[in-house]
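I have been asked to look over a protein record a colleague put together. The record follows directly below this note.
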Amino acid sequence: MPGYRLAVTFVDGSKGVVDLSLLVEREDAGLFTALREPSFFARAYLELGVVTWPNGADLDPAWMHEEINDKGVWRIGTKRGRS
């Protein structure tokens, strides 16, 4: 999806969106800085059920599932001062 977002579907049928836009734009994004490049972001793949990128950045599937089930969207990397 555009805007540093991923559409996800879990084996239990639940679906939602993971929004990494705030995370990748942070100055302290660490490994996730590489995801700013759209062609690199698009290289996401599943490894043992974990969304992963070639540089080793990955997303916690349990946390993702919890947030998707609760809110439908998992927004990662909120900026300081925002909830």
